[in-house]
Amino acid sequence: MTKVAFISLGCSKNLVDTEVMLHNLYKRGYEITFEVEEAEVIIVNTCGFIESAKQETIENILDAAELKSYRCKHIIATGCLVERYRDEVMRELPELDGILGVGSLCDIADAVDAVMRGEKYSSFRDKNTSQLGGGRILTTAPHTAYLKVAEGCDNRCTYCAIPLIRGGLRSRTVEDIVNEARQLEATGVRELNLIAQDTTRYGLDIYGEYSLARLVREICKATDIPWIRLLYCYPDKITDELIRELRDNPRLVKYMDIPVQHISDSVLTRMNRHGGQALIRETIARLRREVPGITLRTTAMVGFPGETEEDFEELCLFVKETKFERFGAFTYSPEEDTLAAEMEGQIDEQTKQDRYDILMQTQLTVAEELSAARIGQRLTVLVDGWDDVAEVFYARGEADAPDVDGRVYFRAPRGAYQSGDFVAVRVTESLDYDLIAEPIGKISL
Length: 445
Known about the structure:
Layout: E1 3-8, H1 12-28, E2 31-32, E3 41-46, H2 51-66, E4 74-79, H3 80-84, H4 86-92, E5 98-100, H5 108-116, E6 121-123, E7 144-148, E8 150-151, H6 162-166, E9 170-171, H7 174-186, E10 191-195, H8 204-207, H9 212-222, E11 227-230, H10 240-248, E12 252-257, H11 265-271, H12 277-290, E13 295-302, H13 309-322, E14 326-331, H14 349-372, E15 378-387, E16 392-397, E17 408-410, E18 422-431, E19 434-443
Parallel strand pairs: 1-2, 1-3, 3-4, 4-5, 5-6, 7-10, 10-11, 11-12, 12-13, 13-14, 17-19
Antiparallel strand pairs: 8-9, 15-16, 15-18, 16-17, 18-19
Helix pairs in contact: 7-9, 13-14
């Protein structure tokens, strides 16, 4: 039986696409391996969001090509980079035997069939009419999963190529999403992370209104999944209904990811972000007022064209004063065919990096203060696994989304708990973004 392996790059939304393709290949009779050295066919699901992601994609394709002198016979590239540079990819990367755009992921089994016959394969279906959802083979820990509620984006931020790559917003129906949530629960999922390019816009295209709060209620009616988490929520679309759901629904964890990108009105205007400084500050104030104890995560961009020292200082002050519990930043990358790439006032790479370093140091001080304040607190954590080297369990609290946030470590005899268990712990130490705790005992949710 032919063995197939994936290298999945980029965001969690891309990871869901990988999991759908894995399921399609499994149904076709291919054997899935998570060791690329064992695979006869390696599929690289690419990211093309910013320049660093493109370079990482190319490096991974070339690394996979080196395995052609061993067991690997064929390499296929799929996803965002392929969709965006379809004319150049096969020409510039002759190591590839097949390419699939984002609208053609349903063709992955046909692609593998073709390359195994010695044929070159290429497919680029309409990304605006492609299949949404589908069966999956999870690549995350068995107890946690991402659930993609929509594809594409209508926001048209001037720096972002996602609408060019993925197309406009296309929401899945409530019934389709709820059905997938049931299937995930049946496999043992206990934490569901709802994602889209802009999760808060969910449903606007098919229901004529923001429908995320309704979707959460329907998932809760149909399943007993204890933790449901909201990622990629834009501040201008966080409705009073959604805030009430966060406040009153005990299974919707008190956590929200709000990518604000900046706080200077002049920068936000050039970014074409919907809502300025006043709206961002009011949204944060409403969330903290209405949902006591909420954890807010955000991301910010430095070095956007025309960002002055005053703009950057305003951003640093905002981060220092707002004290986001979770925070990430990145430097602006000019992407071709976006409006920002043609703007005047492009900033040199060294200045961007310097600003990034200063901003992250500002946040580190905030994080140390917030983490230290948690010493002595009792938390409910979800066990992710056991660290053989340190001989400790590692877990996450409500304040920690998978992959992007910190961990909670605690000692107990190996085997005392299993991945997917909920455990009560008491925090004893803080380590910047992580916490050390002592276990109190397993709990049921």
